[in-house]
Amino acid sequence: MTEPKPPRRGQPPRQAPRRPVATPRPRASGQAGPSVTPALRLMQPRPRLRLVTVLLTVVLVVFSVRLFQVQVVDASAYAAKADLNRYQPVEVAAKRGDITDRFGVPLATSVDAYDITADPYLFAPQQARIGDAPQQAAKLLAPVIGGDEQTIAQQLATPKSRYVVLARRQLPQVWNRIKALKSTLADQAAKRGVPGLLNGVLSEPTSRRVYPNTELAAGVLGFVNGQQQGAGGLEAGLNAELAGKPGKMTYAQSGSQMIPSAGFQEQAAVPGTNVELTIDRDIQWAAQSAISQQVRQSHADRGYVVVQDARNGQILAMADAPSFDPNDISGADPAALGNAALQDAYEPGSVSKLMSMSAVLDQGVATPWTHVVVPGTLQRGDRVFHDDVDHGTWDLTLNGVLAKSSNIGTILATGQLGRTQSQADQVLYSYLKRFGIGEPTGLNFPGETPGILARPQNWSTSQQYTIPFGQGLSVNAVQATSIYSTIANGGVRIQPTLVKGTVGPDGQFTPAPAPKRTRVVSEKTAKTVAEMLESVVGDDQGTGTKAQIDGYRVAGKTGTANRVDPKTGRYHGYTASFMGFAPADQPRVTVSCVIQNPTVGSYFGGQICGPVFKQVMEFALKTLQVPPTGAPAPQIPVDFQPGKQ
């Protein structure tokens, strides 16, 4: 086989000759031969394009219809749903109204505070970059917020939680300390390229109720609960006025964060109303100091002092002992949380004789000079009555019966109120009711007792003779004080008041409604009784000499009653009391002192309550700048000589 010669220069390369393609012959019938594959023909492109176009058109039409429905037909509905999810409503707490004394000095107020919260997710090891972040953070926070370290650590380690409250209503100083600590730790952590340990500690603004004078007037003010709602005393009784009306703020948020540029809507909260009391803070302090000291010295269960303006019925002080600090209810004795001056019902004893003597004089059946022969004992029915001290026969005037606080003499005197004992009982009962016994004081104080006074037809044989000298009926201390203020006010009972008025959010002062006035005895009777009460204090034979005040005429009465033990319902111990007013001839201030179950020293009212009365009355007269009258006291005889007129 010869090699093909290379082409010459300038000539094109020679091409190999093509082999002729054989044209297949038609295969004869029944003749076998090689098969030939037919050529592949593609579909026409136009039908395929039309199909794609139709499908795209349908999809676009569906999208357009849906878009039209969303943006036009249902636009408002979807916008509302979006706003619902995007805008977050938050309640804005109303500032609770203040409670002040008669001069506007705050006794209870609200201050800014913070709830200390945390996001436990940020204390997880993968976030905090520290394995024991909850424990380390708790060790730092516990001394600041006053919590338990282990409890805080458990809260910060709460799985699947983004919100816990570590401490409620902390003062701004506490949150400032936490912020300073956070800043220091954040600077240190930034140098290491890790998050600050306390980055997950946050705060929420709130308010906190504060009682600046701690225990002062705590029984009157009461306290609030964890939701800052009144739970005792005036805080509860006036909660509707003090609480105000919360507002609402709505703001746009994303990822739990506020969007400042989206704006917000705010319905302002309406602050609570300020309540101005009739209480004088200085006199309240004097009353509370005096009764607290005497209760401690006497090892008594409790005691209370009420100071009232005799001219208008306003309560100037109402002090209980033992008391409590409303700033820290958790540490208070539950038995001391109330207001015993209004909530204790007790048998008043001899201080109640004032009403019996008023009835006798007002009915005209006796005068202060009427002779009353008082035996050492007195038999009535199956009971024998005695006086507090054993004695033979006393030849006393009616004035002397009151001065010496004779039970027997009082029984004999009130027996003259009717031709029969039943008639006498009915007359005495009518006077007791007019003095306010067995009726609410009108203060509308939560838990107040109206006392107990049965109808005369229900009096037992014993009560017919014990009620005239103060056993067999019960009162609260404000009711008892009001009895003496009635005599001091010329025989007109003025319903006691504790609220002087209110100051609304607009700063407008609204005075409280005028108290109800009731004529109980005549002005002449009231003046005579007041002079008789001076004998109790001023005469050497009286039982209230420890209540004398230099330069002032004092009218008052001692009381020493058998005490009903509230736990057993039986008589056990004594109730000691002293009540009176000054100046006796131009009365301005009424003071009452009651001590329950004194167990050390004397239990006589004149001995342990007389000095308390004197201490509080002297302070009140000086505080109110009440001058002595300078007029001499009347000299009404205490006894008489038999056979002489």
TrEMBL record:
Major location category of this protein: membrane
Domain of life from the UniProt record: Bacteria
Region (Disordered): 1-39
Domain Penicillin-binding protein transpeptidase: 303-618
Record's signal peptide: none
SUPFAM superfamilies per UniProt: beta-lactamase/transpeptidase-like, Penicillin binding protein dimerisation domain
Claim: Transmembrane is one of the keywords in the record: yes
Places the protein is found: Membrane
Ranges annotated as spanning the membrane: 49-68
Presence of keyword Chloroplast: no
Keyword field: Membrane, Transmembrane, Transmembrane helix
Low complexity: compositionally biased ranges: 18-28
Residue ranges occupied by any Penicillin-binding protein dimerisation domain in the UniProt entry: 92-253
Pfam family, one: PBP_dimer
Family the UniProt entry places it in: Belongs to the transpeptidase family.
Protein name from the UniProt record: Penicillin-binding transpeptidase domain-containing protein
